[in-house]
TrEMBL record:
Belongs to the DnaA family. Keywords: ATP-binding, Cytoplasm, DNA replication, DNA-binding, Lipid-binding, Nucleotide-binding. This is Chromosomal replication initiator protein DnaA. The keyword Cytoplasm applies. Residues 366-435 form the Chromosomal replication initiator DnaA C-terminal domain. The lineage of its organism: Bacteria, Pseudomonadati, Spirochaetota, Spirochaetia, Spirochaetales. Oligomerizes as a right-handed, spiral filament on DNA at oriC. It comes from Gracilinema caldarium (strain ATCC 51460 / DSM 7334 / H1) (Treponema caldarium).
Length: 463
């Protein structure tokens, strides 16, 4: 009954939906109960909301008696070998970038030729969906990315993913590229905004802009990574704007990543901003503890290394900033075992990751400098300035500190909100507006702010 239920659901549900969410696995049955394995408790909860009733009804219908569904969280590894994004060959659609609408017609035509393909030269082959761990920090983005991979150009165009460094933007973007490459003959280009800029400047100097235009305006899928880099690159922005329009009109899929919401890019033309935001925009958040643990496990498995569970827990607990740091810690541990030929214990991990565990503070240094200097200038305590109190004598200095932070650092308003007592990004935006208004109406304020900025710079060099 279980098999038949799945078969029927597969027929009934959207293709994309099925392959994304049916990452489940039959474990066993006890009288009138079927127990299935799921990769995490987050996954289980989401799955239950979506499909629990539907499946129970189906089971009832097919077997003629009520059957209960139960879940067990089992290790990722077991599940990955059974059913993942990439192994569901039976119901893969073929994607032809030229003809994305006739999905059902060409459903089977390409399936036979899939596996033998060479990897795409511009994409990392390990950046795939099956290597991407889903948690509640990224499930929306991953769902959307998969939908796009299956219907490039028609699902959501453009697709914009933003989020802080090391949260998996590049991985997700290349997973889209790898998926489409594997399932079609679409012409795909992956490029960082930085390389795009350099290439364009070279083309300009060599009088070869025609070749440059041809290269980018006639692709099926264009993936441009880290578009925040385009700030202040006026000619390159202009070129990308025209590239965008050409591809958009031809229904070619575009994907962009950015380290903050596009609206917060200060030096990017408005018309380019509005293009980037025309399709679907999603953000990636830092992974929670459970997802971090799952990612570490997956990375360790991929390298064929066994690391005790307690050690993985320790690392997941202590490194929460981003996935890249998690991986760096793992690499360090693996190097240790390989060189010293000793198993990794909690003590070993603690000792060798001391600096990694202690360091994430550093990035906040410049914000701290701003807060300390501003607090001192207004005779407030540093903690009051950062904190929650909203008395009149604190509010203005705090707004000034936020304004300065916005001016002289690259932090987004979201990140600044966090640095200022966990406030919302709208509070920071509001503060900046207030100060801007005040500068216009009160001529004494601007010199004070300039003076503070000088002190902050001194403070930073001294400390
Ligand atoms: P970004 O582009 O946002 O700075 P990356 O895509 O380069 O981040 O990710 C940094 C590292 O973390 C990569 O090695 C990537 O494979 C890994 N990573 C990030 N998110 C995940 C995830 N959800 N599952 C597995 N690995 C991840
Ligand atoms: Mg990146």
């Amino acid at each position: 009954f279980w098999k038949e239920t799945l078969n029927q659901l597969q027929q009934e549900l959207e293709e994309v939906e099925f392959s994304l969410w049916f990452n489940i696995h039959y474990l066993r049955s006890e009288e009138n109960t079927i127990i299935i394995g799921v990769p995490s408790s987050f996954y289980r909860d989401q799955f239950k909301i979506r499909y629990h009733n539907l499946i129970e009804e189906k089971l009832h219908e097919l077997s003629g008696q009520p059957i209960t569904l139960q879940y067990e969280v089992v290790s990722k590894k077991v599940i990955d070998q059974e059913t993942t994004f990439s192994s569901q060959t039976s119901q893969r659609p073929s994607i032809s970038a030229k003809d994305t609408t006739s999905k059902s017609l060409n459903q089977n035509t390409l399936n036979t030729s899939i596996q033998q393909k060479d990897p795409h030269p511009l994409l990392r082959r390990d950046y795939t969906f099956s290597n991407y761990v889903i948690g509640d920090n990224n499930s929306f983005a991953a769902n959307a990315a998969l939908a796009i991979s299956k219907n490039p150009g028609t699902a959501y165009n453009p697709f914009l993913v933003y989020g802080g460094v090391g949260l998996g933007k590049t991985h997700l973007m290349q997973a889209i590229g790898n998926y489409i490459h594997e399932h079609s003959n679409a012409k795909i280009i992956y490029i960082t905004a930085e390389t795009f800029t350099n290439e364009f400047v070279q083309a300009l100097q060599a009088n070869k802009t025609a070749a440059f235009k041809n290269k980018y305006r006639f692709v099926d899928v264009l993936l441009v990574d880290d578009i925040h880099f385009l700030q202040n690159k006026i000619e390159t922005q202009e070129e990308l704007f025209h590239t965008f329009n050409a591809l958009y009109d031809a229904n070619k899929q575009m994907v962009f990543t950015c380290d903050r919401p596009v609206s917060e890019l200060k030096h990017l033309s408005d018309r380019l901003k509005s293009r980037f935001e025309r399709g679907l925009t999603v953000d990636l958040q830092p992974p929670d503890y459970e997802t971090r643990l799952a990612i570490l496990k997956k990375k360790a498995d991929a390298r064929n290394i066994t690391i005790p569970h307690e050690v993985l827990e320790l690392v997941s607990k202590n490194i929460s900033s981003n996935v890249r740091d998690l991986e760096a810690a793992l690499t360090k541990l693996i190097a240790y075992t390989e060189l010293v030929q000793k198993p990794i214990t909690i003590e070993v991990a603690q000792q060798h990751l001391k600096d990694v565990f202690a360091s994430p503070k550093q990035a906040n240094m410049s914000i701290e400098a701003i807060q300390r200097v501003v607090a001192e200038y207004f005779s407030l305590s540093y903690n009051d300035l950062k904190g929650k109190k909203r008395t009149q004598n604190i509010v203005l200095p705090r707004q000034i500190a936020m304004y300065i932070a916005r001016e002289i650092t690259e932090y987004s308003t979201t990140e600044l909100g966090l640095e200022f007592g966990g406030r919302d990004h709208t509070t920071v935006m509001h503060a900046c507006q207030k100060i801007e208004e005040r500068i216009r109406s009160d001529p004494t304020l601007e010199p004070i702010i300039q003076n503070l900025i000088r002190q902050i710079k001194d403070y930073r060099t001294k400390n």
